[in-house]
Amino acid sequence: MIRKAAQILARQAWFRKLVMSTPIVRELAGRFVGGEDLASALAAARGANARGLKTTLNFHGMHVLDLAEAEGAAQQAMDALVRIREEGLDSNVSIKLTKIGLDLDPAYCQLQLRRILECAAGTGGFVRIDMEESNYVETTLRVFEEMQDRFGNGTVGLVIQSYLRHRAGDLDRLLDRKASIRLVKGGYREPASQVFRSKAEVDAAFNRDIERLLLRGVSPAIATHDEAAIAWTLAVQARLGLGREAFEFQMLYGVRPDLQERLLADGCTVRCYIPYGGDWATHAVGCLRRIPAGALTRFRHSLHLS
Ligand SMILES: Cc1cc2nc3c(=O)[nH]c(=O)nc-3n(C[C@H](O)[C@H](O)[C@H](O)COP(=O)(O)OP(=O)(O)OC[C@H]3O[C@@H](n4cnc5c(N)ncnc54)[C@H](O)[C@@H]3O)c2cc1C
Question: E strands, the chain, where?
Fold first, then answer.
């Protein structure tokens, strides 16, 4: 209920303005986003790189239904790839297909993606396709496979969600294709018919997939802030006799920076996902929701909500 309300609020322009003009909230929210434009996101990436973190930049938002907006999002991805190359940053780009027009027209979206990947290939960059709600999974896989055939693993990768009930075979399908995979638990509210709902079931599926990915994956990435899953990953890595450079952890920018630093100090590779751009407030509110109670209370007071 609170989550839903927060998400609805975060999409309102007046709410975003309120958030941005409230100093404490702006400061708190700013911990989780790269900023409102590419220049700020690049600065955040530069700072992260200086601390030893790799990054991935995401022009935030999804379900775009306006052609100019979808076009603009594709341009953002290409601009990011060019600037990453120019600045020599250790960064790549993450995109959502519904941000570049999948809901408008799949063929148009594919055209946009091809332009982005041509830019990535030309700049030596890499683009990861985020995975969205379950009704987009099959299309996303098909689009990815076509692009992988055309551009190769060094240019495009995909995300697989472990919480999906009926799609455990997708990981094998992609491992057979030697795809570059980011494994996540899965981040959307979905019907129980589609996803595991209990933490125990999700964690068990995630642990099973971590092992499969480490065993057979090409440049595998495990994206989580869950310390138990991280410990499991490290145990599997040791059991398989892999080096720490054989995979990377990925986390959201500003979430558990202590853990990110600890993993770096332990010799792990850590990449942080930096959202930026106009729709950043949705993401920041989602993260604020999960920060410790004391800080959240200050946030609510500053908005006069309690
Ligand atoms: C780099 C990255 C890319 C992702 N890409 C996708 C994608 O393409 N598709 C998709 O469906 N999902 C994606 N996700 C989200 C993912 O599916 C999970 O929903 C999310 O990572 C939370 O699960 P967890 O593994 O951290 O474990 P949890 O058990 O949910 O959380 C572990 C701990 O981390 C804290 N935590 C988790 N998330 C946050 C947050 N946002 N802010 C503050 N604290 C938090 C929790 O409060 C808890 O203490 C991505 C996640 C990351 C890190």
Answer: 54-59, 91-95, 127-129, 156-161, 180-184, 218-223, 248-252, 270-276
pTM: 0.92
Is the CB of 187 inside a 6 Å radius of any atom of ligand 1? yes
Question: Which positions ≥6 away from 224 have C-beta within 8 Å?
Answer: 184, 185, 206, 230, 249, 250, 251
Any ligand 1 atom below 6 A from CB of 130:
yes
Q: How far apart are CA 48 and CA 144, in angstroms?
A: 29
Joined tokens for residue 137: 């999974």
Q: Is 182 one of the annotated active-site residues of the chain?
A: yes
Percent of the chain predicted with pLDDT > 70: 88
Domain ranges of the chain: 59-276
Contacts within 8 Å (CB) and 24+ apart, 226-231: 226/185, 227/259, 228/203, 229/185, 229/203, 230/259, 230/263
Residue 239, judged by CB atoms within 10 A of its CB (0-12, 13-18, 19+), counts as exposed
Q: State the DSSP code for 37.
A: S
For 40-73, the pLDDT digits (tens) are 999 999 999 999 999 999 999 999 999 999 999 9
Catalytic residue among 83, 128, 182, 212: 182
59-276 folds as: TIM Barrel (3.20.20)
Asked if residue 81 has its Cβ within 6 Å of ligand 1, the reply is no
Select from 33, 55, 99, 224 the residue to mutate for testing ligand 1; criterion: most ligand atoms less than 8 Å from CB. Answer: 224
**Are residues 84 and 123 in contact, defined by beta-carbon separation less than 8 angstroms?**
yes
pLDDT the model gives residue 217: 93
Instruction: Give backbone dihedrals phi and psi of 57, rounded to 5 degrees, phi first.
Output: -100, 135
The DSSP output letter for 133 is S
